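ARCHIVE CARD
CATEGORY: sequence design from structure
SOURCE FIELD: tokenized fold
FIELD CONTENT:
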């Protein structure tokens, strides 16, 4: 058996076994994932953030109340795609609130939010839509006690 034929069979086996473990194999199905961030901090509250992965830096963004930001990408073959975001905002009393959160983790989110991952950024924390339960879930709280939030 020549080397090319052997390599083709190995690749075919990897693909077949990967399909057996998941309903979709990222990078083969090529479903684009969309992440949506919505500022729900309150009227006149600006949300500043920067999101990154190991490969991409999406830059600094500022959202006014009710505005949103969306980006898209393909999950890598190993389902290890991870985007994290640093968020900051200022309370009406001038207190700076900030935190860093994993906003897309392929291991957590592929089945939970499929290819549309929506995040509502609120004073009490970050809510994400779970498409399996068809409901919003608070995934993260701000790294300060709720009693200190306005």
């Amino acid at each position: 058996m020549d080397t090319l034929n052997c390599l083709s069979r190995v690749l075919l086996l990897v693909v077949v076994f990967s399909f057996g473990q998941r309903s979709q194999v990222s990078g083969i199905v090529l479903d684009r994932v969309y992440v949506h961030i919505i500022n729900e901090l309150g009227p006149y509250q600006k949300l500043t953030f920067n999101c990154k992965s190991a490969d991409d830096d999406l830059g600094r963004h500022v959202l006014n109340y009710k505005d949103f930001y969306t980006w898209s990408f393909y999950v890598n073959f190993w389902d290890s795609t991870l985007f994290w975001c640093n968020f900051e905002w200022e309370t009406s009393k001038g207190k700076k609130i900030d935190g860093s959160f994993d906003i897309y983790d392929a291991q957590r989110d592929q089945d939970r939010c499929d290819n549309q991952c929506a995040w509502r950024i609120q004073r009490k924390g970050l809510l994400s839509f779970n498409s399996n339960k068809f409901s919003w879930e608070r995934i993260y709280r701000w790294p300060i006690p709720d009693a200190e939030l306005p």
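CARD ANNOTATION: The first helix runs from residue 3 to 21. The longest strand covers residues 96-105.
SHELF: design records, drawer C
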